[in-house]
Write a structure and sequence with these properties.
Helix content: 40-55%
Strand order of the largest sheet: 1-2-3-4-5
Structural class: alpha+beta
Shape: elongated
Largest sheet: 5 strands, antiparallel
Mean pLDDT: 79
Number of strands: 7
Order of helices and strands: HHHHHHEHHEEEEHHHEEHH
Length: 303
């Protein structure tokens, strides 16, 4: 019944398509811009659990490593002992990160380090300021000071938190191998929220597309602009949404066929038998997840 009703909203879905799906998928989208969410690790934990439920096949960068889990929580007493031993104070949000979430685990890209493996860049010394890195007169290794590497990011980059001076607690992206430093907007919790904003928004876009098109292949085409080799990951994302258990055993490329045009372009398409099969799965998913579908209808049609 709900599927029949959804046919009535196709035209509206097409009208709102540009509003939601025109922006490109930018891997660095969570490094700048406003963050949305309560300023607490408990709020972060809840949002990570939400992302975990959506990303069943770990298609988000780095998630197959941490699996949205955390290590054992560290007591305030043990954290104070660490500070005394190492000779510097952990910024407040780093302290509470280990106290409330745990000793390493889920976070942007490959997550956050265990306390024992934090990257220490002379955290007790004064922070030299970002200008020293942007216009260096000495090698990066000679000027790095006043920060600790907390997050393991892409391409050997680290999310570092400043430990001294007036900018204590601010997060910067740093890579000494590439002599790179990028100032993120805000602190560690802001950085987490922007990462979650990006990925939760992406999954919601996919769910909206599935409601709008009721067609897995069409959803893939819109996500990619056209089908491509990256369709494997997109298909896994969709299969994970409606908890398709066979997807764990099948390599996604088995669903696709590839043809080379006379111009040398490779055209990828979803095999017809799989398209029909997956759309039946999708119909079942939409019927079972009627609460989401109805909230979509209310938001877009009723306002």
């Amino acid at each position: 019944m709900i599927i029949s009703f959804l046919k009535c909203i196709t035209d509206v879905g097409k009208q709102i398509h540009n509003k939601y799906f025109e922006q490109s998928y930018n891997p660095k989208a969570f490094t700048t811009g406003p963050a949305h969410g309560e300023k607490s690790w408990s709020a972060i934990r809840m949002r990570i659990e939400e992302l975990k439920q959506l990303d069943r096949y770990y298609t988000v960068l780095g998630s197959s490593g941490h699996e949205y889990k955390f290590g054992e929580q560290i007591s305030a007493y043990s954290l104070r002992q660490y500070e005394e031993k190492m000779g510097f104070e952990l910024p407040e949000q780093v302290f509470t990160l280990y106290q409330e979430l745990g000793n390493g685990g889920a976070g942007p890209d490959f997550g956050f380090f265990k306390l024992q493996t934090l990257a220490l860049y002379h955290p007790q010394l004064p922070w030299p300021g970002s200008d020293c890195f942007k216009h260096p007169t000495r090698p990066f290794t000679d000027i790095q000071a006043g920060m600790i590497g907390v997050l393991e990011l892409y391409y050997a980059h680290m999310g570092c938190v400043i430990t001294t001076g007036t900018q204590v607690g601010q997060l910067v992206e740093y890579c000494d191998e590439q002599e790179f430093l990028f100032e993120s907007q805000g602190d560690l919790i802001d950085f987490y929220h922007r990462w979650l904003d990006k990925h939760l928004s992406y999954f919601n876009k996919i769910k909206r597309l599935l409601v709008e098109t009721r067609d897995v292949a069409k959803t893939l085409e819109i996500l990619e602009g056209k089908l491509s080799v990256n369709s494997d990951d997109r298909l896994l994302t969709i299969l994970g949404l409606f908890d398709f258990p066979e997807g764990k055993e099948l390599y996604p490329s088995a669903y696709f066929s590839h043809k080379v045009t006379p111009d040398g372009d490779c055209i990828t398409s979803l095999e017809p038998q799989y398209r029909r099969f997956l759309n039946r799965k999708l119909a079942t998913y939409l019927e079972q997840d009627s609460s989401y579908v109805l909230s979509f209808i209310k938001e877009e049609l009723i306002g």
